[in-house]
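Exercise: predict the fold of this chain.
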Amino acid sequence: MKLDVTSLDGTANGSVDLSDAIFGLEPRQDLIARMIRYQLAKRRAGTHKTKGRAEIWRTGKKMFKQKGTGSARHGSARVPQFRGGGRAFGPVVRDHSHDLPKKVRALALRHALSAKARDGGIVIWENGAVETPKTQALLGHFAKAGLVNALIIDGAAVDANLQMAASNIPMIDVLPVQGINVYDILRREKLVLTRAAVAALEARFQ
């Protein structure tokens, strides 16, 4: 697959051949869905917690006598049916993450890249370097290139000026190639890869 390479403001700057083994697969929605579920589950804090009846500090004295009141029999004020009592079957601190084989995760990333390429959502930049860390200047470049909602993947190290200038722009994410992931690829309309990012991805999946 051959795509045009552009500069930051959208002007043509040659072309690049993308590997069909990474960008030319028939996308499998089941793999992509499994990977997104894995990512979202893994990032959940799991710190939600309520107190059960054993954790409530209230008297253990019997509330009223067993018989003769006409009311139901109760022996504790800590039970869930009373105000101030513990919650029954409430959430507890837990780990929501689950296992997904490494090969499945790698394959899901390739299918996500292929899905984005198939939809025409991949843009290739010569590099991600910007002269100044100014948000307004970067917005001007994006306006020329037609970028509004995009994930930008640079090489092993992201240009500091680009990172700083893009940090204030909504719906624009900038990541090094090590941070590329299925969820971020699919939540943005465009995937912008630099030449260095393409080379790193092809080397990773050799």
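Check your answer against the key: The chain has a mean pLDDT of 93.
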